[in-house]
Amino acid sequence: MLSLLSLYIYRKQDEEDVICIHTVYHIYMRRNLLLICTLAFVLPLTAQQAQHSVAREWNEVQLKAIRKDLARPTVQARNLFHISAAMYDAWAAYDATATPFLLGRAVGTFISPFEGVTAPADIEAARKQAISFAASRMIAHRYKSSPGGAATISRCDSLLRALGYDADYASLDYSNGNPAALGNYIADQYIQFGLQDGSNEGNSYTNRYYAPVNQPYPPFSAFKIQIQDPNRWQPLEFNQFIDQNGNVIPGTVPAFLTPEWGQVIPFSLKPEDKTVYERDGFEYWVYHDPGPIPQLDPVNGGAESEEYRWTHSLTAIWAGHLDPADSVMWDISPASLGNIDAIPETLEGIRALYNYLEGGDIGTGRSINPYTGLPYEPQIVPRGDYSRVLAEFWADGPNSETPPGHWFSILNYVCDRSELKRQYNGEGPEMSPLEWDIKCYFTLGGAMHDAAICAWGVKGWYDSVRPISAIRYMASQGQSSDPSLPSYSPAGLPLVPGKIELIRAGDALAGPGNVNVGKIKIKAWRGHAFISTPTDVAGVDWILGETWWPYQRPSFVTPPFAGYVSGHSTYSRAAAEALTLLTGDEYFPGGMAEFHALKNNFLVFEEGPSVDVVLQWATYRDASAQTSLSRIWGGIHPPIDDIPGRKIGKTVGIEAFEHARKYFTGEIPDQNIETLPIAFPNPVSINEKLSVVMTNPASEGTVQVITLHGQLVYENSFEAGEQIVFFQVDPATFVPGIYIVRVAGKGWQRSGKVWVKP
After folding, report:
1. Alpha-carbon Rg of the chain, whole angstroms?
2. Where on the phi/psi map is residue 410: left (φ > 0), alpha (ψ -120 to 50), or beta?
C-alpha cells in the first residue's frame, strides 16, 4: 500500500528549489530544519507519476504560487477554478464535442468572442501548447502582486521554456492557428472576465459595504472581553497579525475576508438557489441558504439560547482533549473511525452526532478493506496526539494551499496511485492523463469555487460569532445551569461536572483575596503562556473561562471572518462528493489513504506528537468528516457551523459534477444574450466603475446614459469587438437616482435602468 513520506532536509535556500517533490502538503520550519510532508514518494517516480500531464505540471505551479500568496481561501478557490477552466477551454477548443466554459460563450454578463480553430495536424501537441500559455499567463496575472509573485512568474517562464516554448510570445491573434496565441487569448478573456465577476479583483478584493458591529477585541489582553452583540462576528486585535501562510498583514485588526463573496459569478449555482438579503444598502446573496443560526438571548434565554450554549460549550470542552498525557487512547484507523455518510437534518440530530464529553463522533468504522479483503489494522495512539495533529493538518498552514488547494493536492495524490483507473465516473474506457486531469481539475475547481461562494455568502450575511468571543463572553457572564447557584445568568455557560465548573474558595484559581471565586473555570488547553519554546507542551488543566484559547498559533488565533458556516466543512464535503463521482468510487484507491506525522516533528507551536501518528481515511467522505472535527478541536468552529456546511458542500459537489459533465458532452446551451442585464453592478455607487454589456460585440455602436427626464449625462462610442464598456460614475455628472442606459448599434438597440446610489 502506498503510504506517505516525510522528509527532513536542512534549509539552504528557498524550499521550492531545494528538492523537486510532488504534491506538497505542509512545509514547516522547526529547529532549523525544513519539514516537508508529502503525499507521494519523491524517488523513484511511479509509472503514474512519470505520465504527469502538462495540466498537472501547471497545477503544481499554481499550488506553489498559492503557498507563497496571502491565505485567502475564497480568492484561491476562484483562482483554482478560473485557471482550471482556462486549461479546460484550451483543451475543449480542439474537441468536436466538448463545450468551453468561457471561450465563445456568455457567462454572467461577459461575452467572449471566438471564431473557432482549424484542427491542427497534431491535436495533442496543440492542446499542450495552448494549455501551457493559458495557464502561464493566468497564473502570472493572478499572483503577480502576491508576496511570492516574482518567484511565481519566474517559475512560469521556466516551465514554458522547459516545454520548448517561447516564454516571451505575447500575441493574442489565434487566427493563423498558433496554439500559443490561442492560449494567450484564452488567458486574456479570463483576465477580463475576472475584472467584472463581482470579486472586486481590481481593488484587491477589498470590502465595499460590510462593517462589523462589534469593536475589535485583543485576545491577549488582561481585560475582560467586551462585545456589543454576542451573536455577531467580532474582529480580533493583534500587535502583529500573521496569516496562515506566514505573511505579516499590515495593521493590527485584520478585516473580514470577502464577506460580499456571494455576488461572485458562480459555476453551477442557479438563480433559484439564491436568497437575496439587504443590509446597509448592499444586497447579500446567499446560495443554498441554511437559515439563521441559533441566537443567544442574554436577558431571557430560551430554546435558541440553549442551543447556542450547547454548541459553544462542546467546543470549550473539546479543548480539554489536547493533552497526550491524559492517558486516553484511541484507535484512529478506519476500523474504528469514519463511516458516517448521513448528515443530520435537525438540531437533535446534530447533538446526537457528536460525543459531547469525550470527543469525536458516532462513526463505527469499517471492518474490511474492500480492495484487499483484509481487516483494517488498528492504530492505537493518545487522543491528545490525534486531536492536535488533526487540528494542525487540516488547518492548512503555514505555507499551505488553503482548503481548496489542499483538496487539489489530495486529487493529485489520488491520481498518482497505481490502483487508480482513469475512467470517468468509474465507467467507459480509460482516459489519457491529460484528458483525465483537465476534466478533474475543471470539476473540482467548479466545486471549490461554488463552495466558497455559498459559505462566504452565508458568513457575510449571518455574520456569526466565533468560539473565542462566544466562550469568553459566556464565561464572563457566569453559569446558566442553576439559578440557586452563584453567578447565574441566561448568558452564562452551562455547568458540566469535571469540564465546566464554578471556582470555589480554596480553589487553585481562586486568586488573591478570592477575586475569582464565583467565576467560571474550564478544563482545557492552557494556551500560549505555557509555551516558551517549540519543545514545550502547554497541556490541559483548569483555566479561567475568560481566558479560553483555540488551539491555533498565537499570531493567528482565529480566521478573520465569521464562523457560520464552516468553510472547511463546505469545501471538504463538496470535494469528497466530486471525487467520489469522478472516480466512481467512494473509497480512495486501494481502500485507504494516509498521512504520517512523525513523533515530535510535526506540530508547530508546541512539541508533538508524542508518538508517530498516521491519519488514515478509507473514503473521501471519511476525510471530509475528519476535516470538520478538526475545526472543533482547533477551537475554530462549534457543531452548529459544521453540519450546515457539510449539507451545502454535499449539494454543491454533486451539482458541480453534473454541471461539468454537461460541458464535456456538449449539453450546455449558449446563453440568450438578450436576457443578460445591461449594466452592473446595479445599484452602483458614486465614484464606482459601471460596466455596460454589448448585445452584439461584432458591431460598433454608442453607449448613452439618460436621466428619467431625458437629459443626456454620458455618451461614448465603442468599437466592434468590445464586449463591455467601463466608465466611472463621476460625481460631477451623476447624482443619486434612476437612469436609463441605452446601447445601440447599426440595426440593434437595447436599454435598461440602473440605480446610482450616494
Report:
1. 27
2. alpha
Q: Is 385 buried (19+), middle (13-18) or exposed (0-12) by CB count in 10 A?
A: buried
pLDDT class of 600 with cuts at 50, 70, 90: very high
Are 594 and 670 spatial neighbours (Cβ–Cβ below 8 Å)? Answer: no
Q: Which amino acid is at 201?
A: E
Distance of CA 523 to the CA centre of its chain: 31
Which helix (H) or strand (E) element contains residue 26?
strand 24-30
The two most distant CA atoms of the chain are separated, in Å, by: 90
**Domains of the chain (ranges plus CATH)?**
5-206+383-464+561-665 (1.10.606.20), 467-547 (no CATH), 678-757 (2.60.40.1930)
**Which three cell numbers mark 444?**
473540482
The cell 477575586 sits on which residue? 515
Tens of pLDDT along 17-64?
332 333 333 333 343 333 334 333 233 345 555 579 999 999 999 999
CB atoms < 10 A from the CB of 344, how many? 17
User: Strands (DSSP E) along 339-392, which ranges?
Assistant: 380-382
Cβ burial of 268 (10 Å; 0-12, 13-18, 19+) is: buried
DSSP SS3 for 439: helix
Strand, coil or helix: 415: helix
Q: Which residue has the higher pLDDT, 647 or 671?
A: 647
Which residue bears the cell 512560469? Answer: 156
Instruction: Indicate the pTM of the whole model.
Output: 0.86
Burial class (CB in 10 A: 0-12, 13-18, 19+), 580: buried
Burial class of 681 by CB neighbour count within 10 A (0 to 12, 13 to 18, 19+): buried
Q: What phi, psi does 346 have (nearest 5°)?
A: -130, 165
Q: Which of 453, 435, 93, 134 is nearest to 267 (CA)?
A: 453
Amino acid present at 346: T
Q: Secondary structure of 244-289 in the HEC alphabet?
A: CCCCEECCCCCCCCCCCHHHCCCCCCCHHHEEEEEECCEEEEEECC
Measured at the CA of 416, the angle between CA 414 and CA 422, to 5 degrees, comes to 70
96 CB neighbour count, 10 Å cutoff: 7
Q: Does position 374 have pLDDT exceeding 50, yes or no?
A: yes
Give 530-552 as a 3 state SS string: HCCCCCCCCCEEEEEHHHCCCCC
Whether pLDDT at 3 is above 60: no
% of the chain residues with pLDDT over 70 = 90
Nearest residue to 172 (alpha-carbon basis) of 126, 114, 128, 125: 114
Cα separation, 632 vs 638, whole angstroms? 6
Neighbours of 613 (CB within 10 A): 26
What average pLDDT score do residues 281-286 get? Answer: 96
Mean pLDDT over each residue of the chain, to the nearest integer:
90
Cα dihedral 581, 586, 590, 592 sign: positive
Measured distance CA(256)–CA(235) in Å, rounded: 8
Half-sphere CA count of 414, side-chain side, radius 13 A:
32
Q: Which of 106-110, 238-242, 332-336, 374-378 has the lowest mean pLDDT?
A: 106-110
- Torsion (CA) 450, 643, 476, 233 in degrees, nearest 10: 10
Distances (CA, A) of 651 to 340, 538, 622, 654: 16, 40, 17, 5
- The per-residue pLDDT for range 345-354, each reduced to its tens digit, is 999 999 999 9
* Pairwise pLDDT comparison (612 vs 726), residue with the higher score: 612
Asked whether residue 748 carries a pLDDT value surpassing 60, the answer given is yes
Per-residue confidence (pLDDT) for residue 725, from 0 to 100: 76
485 or 752, which is more confident: 485
In whole angstroms, give the CA distance from residue 473 to residue 476. Answer: 5
- Mean pLDDT of the region 319-330: 97
The pLDDT, as a whole number, for residue 45 is 43
Distance of CA 420 to CAs 75, 366, 584, 590, 680, Å?
31, 21, 11, 8, 45
Looking at residue 749, the DSSP 8-state letter turns out to be E
Q: Is 66 helix (H, G, I), strand (E, B) or coil?
A: helix
